[in-house]
Amino acid sequence: MFEEIAASRGPLLVATDLDGTLAPIVDDAAEARVPARALAVLERLTKVARVAVVTGRDLNTARMMVPAEEIVIMGSHGLEASIETELLPEVDRGAQAAALEKFEHTVIQAVPNALAHIERKAVSTAFHYRTAPELEAPLREALRGIPKTLRVREGRMVLEVLPNGGGSKDLALTALAGHFKTKSILVMGDDLTDVAMFEAGLVLREAGASVLLAGVSGQDETPAGIQELSDVMLASPDEARDALEVVAKALGV
User: Fold this and answer.
1) What letters, b where the CB count within 10 A reaches 16 and e where it falls short, cover 55-86?
2) Using 50, 70 and 90 to split pLDDT, how confident is the model at 74?
3) 170-187 confidence digits (pLDDT tens)
4) How far apart are CA 111 and CA 82, in angstroms?
5) Other beta carbons less than 10 A from residue 209's beta carbon
6) Which domains are seen in the chain, by residue range?
7) How many CA atoms lie within 13 Å of 27's alpha carbon, on the beta-carbon side?
8) Which of 56, 105, 185, 213 makes a 20 to 30 Å CA pair with 18?
């Protein structure tokens, strides 16, 4: 399958999630790292294809994890991008920061122990409960009072509050395909947020693009949508890297 997508008419777009796909999931999100071999194959691919990381991480954090400037970053589920495009929604950072801070304070008042598990991003706040599963129920209850200007996005052992402005990975993938005018696309992901990106890939396939959807297993955390939509399931980030190696070698880099 991976040799076939490499042989499809170009230009090829490689659009991949970050955590759980390139970087192994760890207890503390701040400690996550993309292995050197995965970074190396992504950099090689930039010589013959368009490469983009589509992630819930904010733009600056994602860039630190994936430092190669040739790799496009679509951060905050597409609300931030390292390329200029009119296909993504604009975000009023000042207004959103104030709304997030106010609601974050409300959540912490309701669930004080959540303070130690918060990940603050540029335009969102993530409440992790991987190392404190007892926080899931009270967090969900507290998040029920979210204002209309914000929304909750679920991930692997995390509940993220972000602007209710339409940013999502499906729009990010569609924007990338339009920006680069790609004819073939490899999409890789593991999480619930990646389901929308896979669905956008199917729409692009129906429109005539060659699309390969590669899911990365998170074992019992793998969303049903990833398993159902994937053309191929990879067992781990290591297997995802190996798949990218196959594509790179097929393209001669």
Assistant:
1) bbbbbebbbebbeeeebbbbbbbbbbbeeeee
2) very high
3) 999 999 999 999 999 999
4) 35
5) 17
6) 2-89+167-250 (3.40.50.1000), 93-163 (3.30.70)
7) 4
8) 105
